[in-house]
Write a structure and sequence with these properties.
Blueprint lengths: L12 H13 L1 H35 L2 H28 L4 H6 L1 H13 L5 E3 L2 E4 L2 E6 L4 E4 L2 E3 L4 H14 L5 H19 L7 E2 H8 L5 H4 L2 H14 L10 E5 L10 E4 L5 E4 L1 E5 L5
Antiparallel strand pairs: 1-2, 2-3, 3-4, 4-5, 6-10, 7-10, 8-9
Helix pairs in contact: 2-3, 5-6, 7-8, 7-10
């Protein structure tokens, strides 16, 4: 947490200590401890159940000595179970919303991915892990992975999920995306008064493709950059409807503003800047 970050004057000290503990140990460690505590409570519950079963059988048979002994043992096991449950409850001291609202959780995901050999980058508070895009939703205690909500937040589970998605490969339809890209390109060319085939920035194409209210929120530049890469990898260059052919423009564009960045299947960052469509009926 940054030194100048505050939790608000009305927060209880317990919340602050919970946040500090969560940041220091990490969510993975906190959940590992809680998992162990719950496992111990489960064993205590099994022992209690066994004593209660003995008591029931003794009562059914009228074995009074065994009944009293089993009831006493059950009371003891019940106390042990209560202690274990309290330990599990009190041991889980993570303030989830506060933790997810900081950079600490994203850093933990990045570290966990790196330790397992999975390439992941952070871009504008989103995590890029080919072919997936991940956004943390603190208020919902969830992740958005490729625009789908996922409430499984344990870092090891998240990394395993992303690895599985990488191994499965992207679900991407190149031709419809190319058609939309070409339509957006032609609108930009017309708006800017450029000649057909001129290079235009991809950020300008993105702007016209997300003109309607809410579209930019639902389809961010990171998703757009990811889809550009998937189109690039597909090898589909010709829009069948118009006969126009896609041409990428990078060179000096990758060193200027308006660069769109995503992560390639190799784990390296991939950048896109400009695009053009050449050739047309009658040209």
């Amino acid at each position: 947490m940054d030194d100048d970050t505050t939790l608000g004057s009305g927060r209880e000290s317990g919340l602050e200590s919970g946040l500090e503990s969560g940041l220091e140990s990490g969510l993975e460690s906190a959940l590992e401890r809680t998992e162990a505590d719950v496992a111990a409570a489960t064993r205590a519950a099994a022992a209690l159940t066994a004593e209660l079963k003995r008591a029931r059988l003794a009562a059914a048979a009228g074995q009074l000595r065994d009944l009293r002994k089993a009831l006493a043992a059950a009371a003891l096991r019940a106390g042990e179970l209560a202690e274990q449950v309290t330990r599990a409850r009190d041991g889980y001291d993570v303030n989830e919303v506060e933790l997810l609202s900081t950079a600490a959780y994203r850093k933990e995901l990045l570290g966990r991915a790196a330790s397992t050999g999975l390439s992941m980058f952070e871009e504008d508070e989103r995590l890029l892990c080919y072919p997936s895009l991940v956004r943390v939703l603190p208020a919902e205690l969830a992740l958005e992975i490729d625009r789908r909500r996922d409430r499984r937040l344990r870092p090891s589970v998240v990394v395993a999920t992303l690895r599985a998605a990488q191994e499965a490969g992207p679900r991407f339809k190149a031709e419809p995306f190319l058609r939309s890209l070409r339509a957006g390109y032609e609108l930009v060319v017309a708006q800017q008064g450029k000649s057909p085939g001129a290079v235009v920035p991809l950020t300008a194409v993105y702007d016209v493709l997300t003109l309607l209210p809410g579209q930019a929120r639902d389809y961010g530049k990171q998703e757009f950059a990811r889809d550009l890469y998937l189109l690039d990898q597909s090898g589909v260059l010709t829009d069948k409807g118009s006969g126009r052919q896609l041409r990428w423009a990078a060179s000096s564009g990758t060193r200027s503003t308006g660069v769109l960045t995503t992560v390639a299947s190799s784990g390296q960052q991939q950048r896109y800047w400009g695009v053009a469509f050449t050739g047309a009926p009658g040209s």
